[in-house]
Amino acid sequence: MASKPNEKWGTDITYVTTGEGWLYLASVMDRYSRKIIGWHMSDRGSQYASHDYQKQLQVYSMIGGISYKGNC
């Protein structure tokens, strides 16, 4: 539980199937306000495992975590 804004964020990727293939919606939620503070739509699905993503977590002293399906 967060006690102030921007103390903890939660992330999720939603997979949407279309007639042309899969789309991926990645979102970031502030755990204090429960507002979506960032999102990105893509047609690729390896965002959280990528080297660039992991590097950005380190740059901003963030800790990545994986939760179970439907827990956002």
UniProtKB/TrEMBL annotation:
One of its GO terms (molecular function) is nucleic acid binding. Residues 1-72 form the Integrase catalytic domain. GO terms for biological process: DNA integration. Signal peptide: none annotated. SUPFAM superfamilies: Ribonuclease H-like (SSF53098). PROSITE patterns: INTEGRASE. Pfam families: rve. This is Integrase catalytic domain-containing protein. It comes from Aneurinibacillus aneurinilyticus ATCC 12856.
